[in-house]
Amino acid sequence: MKKIDFHEKAIIITGASYGIGRELAHQLAEQGAWLVLAARSIEKLEEVSEECGQLGGRVITVPTDVSDQAQCKNLIDQTVKEYGKIDILINNAGIALATRFENLEDLKLFEKVMAVNFFGAVYCTHYALPYLKESQGRLVAVSSLRGKIQSATADGYPASKHAMAGFFDSLRNELVNRDVSVTMIYPGWVSSGISSRTLKPDGTQKGEISRHEKKAMPVEKCAGIIIKAVTKRKREVVMTFQGKLGIWLRAVAPRVVDRMMKGKTK
Is 18 a catalytic residue? Predict the structure, then answer.
């Protein structure tokens, strides 16, 4: 991919310790970006920070649980304190849950997924927006095809991703005259390790890579597509042909998609 100039652009990446976030940090560091890496794990953040420093990026780490509004404010405050500006906010932090709704004994797990995936993006965006307006910056939200097409199970993850789409698509309308772009990203399966960290109904992680992820898009390719979309200030990107086909099919023949999803629940 042709290198795009993000030299000395102040870029916040949430969920930067693993997967897509980590690879975004690597690729942006190679372009001399000023990075702010946010995640819950201090140890993992330091690993990514060291890698990015070796690749040429300027980096600070801000341990952040995005489900905590005060921590999100601190993330923005620390960014501005270090760099004096914010050019790009990439809302990438997320957790997955895999279960049938009827098997959830405690809805706190459902709420946790919504808090991280949806409210975490809302909190960070709220505090970053004044600075993005100043820089005519870019807002990015990493969603999922499950935010476009209904899922086989109502486990909280698709609800959070649909909520992201509704919020950021509406915010784009608010910002149409403010020169702040909003880019929605809809990946399919990506080899990011997310399936091994997916939560089970008891709140523990699955601990193994799913068969879907083993054949998935390489994380390097996914990050490259995101960076290209951010550069062009694209409205949205649906990453796979199957995803685009599914969206079209849902629009013209929703009952067909319903039957396809029903088959996956068995």
Answer: no
Residue 104 near residue 110 (C-beta atoms within 8 A) = yes
Contact 261, 152 (CB under 8 A): yes
pLDDT tens, residue by residue, 156-199: 888 999 999 999 999 999 998 889 999 999 998 787 766 677 77
Query: Is 4 within a domain?
Result: no
> Counting Cβ atoms within 10 Å, is residue 3 exposed (0-12), middle (13-18) or buried (19+)?
exposed
Q: What local confidence, expressed as pLDDT, does residue 37 receive?
A: 98
What CATH number is attached to the domain comprising 174? 3.40.50.720
- pLDDT of 13 over the 80 cut: yes
The alpha carbon of 202 is separated from its chain's Cα centroid by a whole number of angstroms, namely 24
User: How many domains in the chain?
Assistant: 1
CA-nearest of 142, 146, 139, 141 to 162 is: 146
How far, in Å, CA of 173 to CA of 258, rounded?
31
Domain that holds residue 27: 10-264
d(CA 26, CA 15) in angstroms, rounded, equals 13
Q: Which of 123, 127, 131, 157 is catalytic?
A: 157
